[in-house]
Design a protein that fits this description.
CATH architecture of the domain at 21-87: Orthogonal Bundle
Order of helices and strands: HHHHHHHH
Structural class: mainly alpha
Distance between the termini: 110 Å
Number of strands: 0
Helix content: 40-55%
Oligomer: single chain
């Protein structure tokens, strides 16, 4: 009895890369069937809602290959479409791309673009240099 429990635990924690394509399809089909049953839907009801044949539901739940459009429709009908984001997430930018996007870092301010005080006549500021009084 203990051996069976350990085998089940191992099967649940097994790295997906260690599984064959058929085993992965089998596992996916079982999970989709569990979701369907948890929603208390028959294969025929799910097929009607997804816009696919009942045979397609049967095939995917039994680990057989189906068209990806059928898979997307079934995932949508089961409200599992968000899981595709985890399947193929947007790749993160490389460290070099981040550095290039960052651009040059500012080390000083350029000031306002208004005319500088040196360009203005002394009278306009109301202040004069002491040697200009004479």
């Amino acid at each position: 009895m203990e051996e069976i429990a350990l085998l089940r635990l191992y099967a649940l924690t097994m790295d997906m890369n260690d599984l064959s394509d058929d085993a992965i399809l089998q596992r996916l089909g079982q999970r989709l069937a569990r979701h369907r049953l948890n929603l208390n839907r028959t294969q025929a009801e799910l097929a009607l809602e997804a816009g696919v044949s009942r045979r397609s539901i049967y095939k995917i739940e039994n680990g057989l290959s189906v068209d990806t459009r059928i898979l997307v429709r079934i995932l949508r009908a089961l409200d599992l479409l968000d899981g595709l984001e985890m399947l193929a997430p947007e790749p993160a930018p490389s460290p070099m791309a981040l550095l290039e996007a960052r651009g040059r870092e500012r080390i000083r301010a350029s000031g306002s673009r208004k005319a500088s005080r040196a360009d203005k006549p002394a009278e306009s500021t109301g202040w004069q240099w002491p040697d200009e009084h004479s």
